[in-house]
Fold this sequence. Notes:
Blueprint: H1 2-33, H2 37-69, E1 84-87, E2 90-93, H3 110-176
Antiparallel strand pairs: 1-2
Protein name: t-SNARE coiled-coil homology domain-containing protein
Organism: Peronospora belbahrii
Amino acid sequence: MMVSNKKEKNKKSDQIHELKTRIDERLHSLAMSKFLSKEVAMRMDIVVQYYAEYERIKELAAATYHTAAGPHAFHTSCFASPIGCFKKSTFTPRAKSSRASESPVFGGHTKTIYALTSSLSTLAQMLELDVQARMLNEELRHQTIMYDGLVEQTDTTKAHVESINKTMKDAQLRTRRSPNNA
């Protein structure tokens, strides 16, 4: 009878040891696939940075759009107007006349052409900002999906570890209360 009790105790201790080994192996494999909290924090910082850049580009695009529609937008030109010349290291301003600003080719429509050119330049800047905003938005969406995946994986790993811990505690409680220990 004593021999059978010892065999059962040895069998139980072997089962517990085997269970601990399997749990350790599972935890080790989970630790290998689990992302570190530093990496999750780093990825979240990247997402926040992309979002800040996206917002800044949206504000720049809005400001550029409002500037183009403002009253002063059609009075500026993107070309340097000849206002004088340099001769022997001195600047000589050009005399202004009523016809000085008019081009002989375009008549009195020079200001309108400059305004249209300025508007086209502003439109090109807006289109470039729009492309950048779309690219940043796409990257932000991609980073957010990656971050959500990391959070889900962390939650799943945590739940799995808690389940394993509960199983271990239950196994320990069962072995302590077994009739062989009494």
